[in-house]
Amino acid sequence: MIPSRTLLLLIAGLVMAGTPARAAEFYTEDLRIPMTEAGPQGLEAFLVRPAGTKRYPLALLSHGSPRSFDDRATMSAHKYYGIALEYARRGFAALIVMRRGYGTSPGGRVDSVGGCTNAAYLPAAAVAVADLRAAIDAMARRSDVTTSGMIAAGHSAGGLATVALTAQAPAGLVAAISFAGGRGSRDDEDVCNEDGLAQAFASFGKTSRVPMLWVYATNDSFFGPDLARRLYDGFRGNGGNAKFIAAPPYGDDGHYLYSVVGRPQWTPYVDGFLRERGLGHDVLSPPDPLPPPDQLNAAARVEFGRYLASTMPHKAFAVSPNGGYGWRSGRTTTDDAQRDSLGACMKWSPTCTLYAIDDRLAGATRAAR
């Protein structure tokens, strides 16, 4: 496991009544998870944890599967940074691992469920579990992460993968969370081989004993309330240990409740579940909003607000003395983000300097002429 880049994010601390502000730092690292089946490239992964010298318990995060196969190539572990940060804020080393065939992880259609009518979910789940176990093995060898007292959480197909992982629970897994867990949705209210999907969850329940939290919004277009309850009843009926939450409707499609924007609604469910098991720690504060550059006009300040709201590392905001600006996010490195934002700014002004990098002020600015 060879880190490719590291980033130290300075995040302003939580201000409490009568006490000074505390500073909290988060460490992030891009990784490749070694796995024989994934070849020499390994699996794409991204780690977010509190900065410090202790070993933090692992929070293994698993992503969903887009309806279109072609969309898998556009996926990135970086896109889940905002979700991972929520677990890091709670004292975990959050690892987003891209399973085989997603993002830059090789694998093609290795986790295919086959034809829609007879979609086979157990073999696909076995592939996902193998990938998650490879990630756990890699994290167990680190000096800053512990797999003792670890948790797992997943969304959609990642929720199914998480449930499947609990059915073959690795040592140290103490709790798991599934948001909108399922697989095989090809259109709204159209799931391939619903009976087979229900049978898969029932099968997981036969051996799964790890405490779980299942959350489905009542307006989920992928896995509606009736199907969600059917999956849960089959799992619980065979001995699975899970608490079910029918969350209120979220936006236009509750399938996307588990998102950065949806944090105010889903994080209380997670906090309650973790508290019941004595897991997690004090919640560290998220990044404080940075003040906008003084030279920006009203419209540009709105754009700076969009920059602040972007949770995809790495990003940068450049500005010129006359109020020109440019910003870019979702870049592979901070250097890429700085270069691209300066380039965007220079389309409007011959002289630009960096104002912000990720969630902090740029400090010593770097000019471009």
Q: For the CA atoms, what is the radius of gyration? A: 21 Å
How many E-type strands? Answer: 16
Task: Return the string of H and E elements.
Answer: EEEEHEHEHEEEHEHEHHEEHEEE
- Spatial separation of the terminal alpha carbons: 40 Å
Supply the helix-strand structural class: alpha/beta
Helix content: 25-40%
- Please state the average pLDDT score: 89
Global outline: globular
SS summary, helix count: 8
Q: Low-confidence segments, ≥5 residues, pLDDT <50?
A: 1-23, 364-369
Strand content: 15-25%
Q: Can you summarize the main beta sheet?
A: 9 strands, mixed
Give the neighbour order of strands across the main sheet. 1-2-3-5-4-6-7-10-11
What tags apply to this protein structure?
9-stranded mixed β-sheet; globular; disordered N terminus; alpha/beta; disordered C terminus; 5-stranded antiparallel β-sheet; 369 residues; 24% strand; 16 strands
Structure write-up:
This protein is of the alpha/beta class. The strands form three sheets. The protein has a nine-stranded mixed β-sheet with strand order 1-2-3-5-4-6-7-10-11, sandwiched between helices. Strands 12, 13, 14, 15 and 16 form a five-stranded antiparallel β-sheet that branches. A hairpin with a 2-residue loop joins strand 14 and strand 15. It starts with a strand and ends with a strand.
